[in-house]
Specification:
about 220 residues; about 15% helix; 1 helix; six-stranded parallel beta sheet
Length: about 220
Amino acid sequence: MDGPGSVTEVSTRLRFRRFLGARVRATRRYLNEVATVGPDDPYAASFFYFGSRAALLAPQGVIYNERYLSIGDETMIGPNVCITAGISAEQEMLRAPVVTIGRKCVIGRGSHIIGHWSIELGDEIQTGPYVYITDQNHSYESPDQPVGWQTPTEAEVRIGSGSWLGANVVILPGTVLGRNTTVAAGAIVRGTFPDHVVLGGVPAKVLRHFTVDGGWQAGPPQ
């Protein structure tokens, strides 16, 4: 007779685990499909703009103050992406929209777009996972007051159409990127950069640039 811990019992438990695991995964896929937000869902009407064929994939991250968020046509926001305007859902902002994401963009999973003044992404921008974009920074002018309690500073952010931001890129306040900019994974970016460059490093610098006559060349434009 097969007792506890026997080969038969272990085999039965393994088959049950596999069966149950498959059902759990199938249920999760179904729930995520149902929870994906499209332009025809009532929730989409709460946004400043929610474009045709756009989608917020599930599970969604923290999203609030939707009336200040604009999502372009055919843009896909990946799972666990956080998009916010201000610091609470009740906050009245000074402009609308605060965060604008253009057409045919893809925002990678786990990314954060945290707006307080103005963040504007052009069309056909793609990001890797866990990209962080913000237009507000903590200030530290007072040596006696905790940094977190000091008045933050804000500066608008603009990212040119056709750009690619690699995984874990951080875009700081005041950054302006030109069209078709490539930002290497892990870069921390602040400043104004021209079209058609490759950025990388901490802080990010121009690693390559494109010219009509010479094609891609090392270093920044002269």
